[in-house]
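Query structure, 192 tokens:
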């Protein structure tokens, strides 16, 4: 049996920019908001407002550790203030039934960048990489304390960042730029 969710928009300017699904949740990224649905019941949960829905300014990550309460982290740049990142943690209880609860909390992160080019949540939801508009600097924030943990330089020339990813263990950050360069940064002291 096929099930579906039908979305209706107020005007034609609100198109879907990105979809993200994980176990119990479906995120629909629009131009200025993210809608959250329970994927098991196909029911609407909430909407995160004030979103800059451009592709590189919204990032998702999900925990995979079995001893933790499963959660998804969604980070996005504020549409009203390009220096602010909003971080939402969406938690699921451990039940597998359709009636399992979904809770969320929001944290505000003020960056020292005037504008942001790229965001990336790490594989285990431990870190958030934030690339400045020029592509020269990268700040790594802890998603537990919401404080900057590392300040990295990519270079002095302005570039477009094509991709920012973390390895599966959150030990390294990899960055690809329009200058056809690939940078790998260690995140833990023992790799420095």
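Result returned for the query:
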């Amino acid at each position: 049996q096929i099930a579906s969710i039908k979305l209706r928009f107020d005007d034609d300017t609100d198109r879907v920019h990105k979809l993200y699904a994980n176990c119990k949740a479906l995120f629909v990224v629009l131009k200025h908001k993210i809608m959250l649905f329970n994927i098991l019941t196909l029911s609407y949960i909430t909407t995160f407002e004030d979103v800059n829905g451009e592709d590189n300014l919204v990032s998702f990550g999900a925990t995979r550790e079995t001893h933790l309460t499963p959660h998804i982290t969604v980070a996005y740049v504020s549409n009203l203030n390009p220096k602010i990142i909003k971080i939402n943690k969406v938690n699921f209880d451990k039940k597998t039934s359709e009636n399992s609860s979904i809770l969320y909390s929001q944290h505000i992160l003020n960056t020292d960048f005037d504008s942001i080019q790229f965001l990336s949540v790490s594989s285990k939801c431990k870190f958030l990489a934030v690339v400045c508009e020029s592509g020269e600097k990268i700040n790594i924030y802890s998603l537990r304390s919401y404080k900057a943990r590392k300040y990295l330089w990519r270079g002095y020339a302005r570039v477009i960042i094509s991709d920012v990813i973390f390895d599966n263990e959150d030990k390294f950050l990899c960055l690809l730029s329009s200058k056809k360069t690939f940078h790998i940064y260690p995140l833990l002291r023992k790799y420095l």
